[in-house]
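Lab manual, section 2.4: Encoding a predicted structure.

Procedure: take the sequence of the chain (131 residues), apply the prediction step described in section 2.3, and record the output as structure tokens. A sample record is shown.
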Amino acid sequence: MSTDSNSLDNAVRRDVAAALAEDIGPGDLTAKLIPAGKQARAMVRSREAAVLCGAPWFTEVFRRLDPQVLIEWQVAEGDALQPDREFVQLSGNAAALLSGERRLRRERVNMSALSAVPARKSSIRARPCRD
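Recorded output:
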């Protein structure tokens, strides 16, 4: 693994830790209303053509909340997303999924703005966001 990759991985871990500390601090009060051990499934769908940018950040959010959450990507970082298509499925602890979903909704505006514009302006295959 290169130094640049290690730097990016460290930045993602640091940013996610800070974002979760700000959002839920010592615990997510809403998620505590869900019965302990309750399992759930979720999926994320693209509303419009875009480029997947932020998969490592997304994955780290759920890894920090519950390492047992299963994340199944149908596309890779930098791939084009088709409108109204599911591109990731999650399953695991319902409280972790709720907490992660709420954190990611706050980030979605930033991530969507960054990924949708290149998808509209380019007809060539998107490159990974790490470039």
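Check your result against the sample. The chain has one domain: 3-121.
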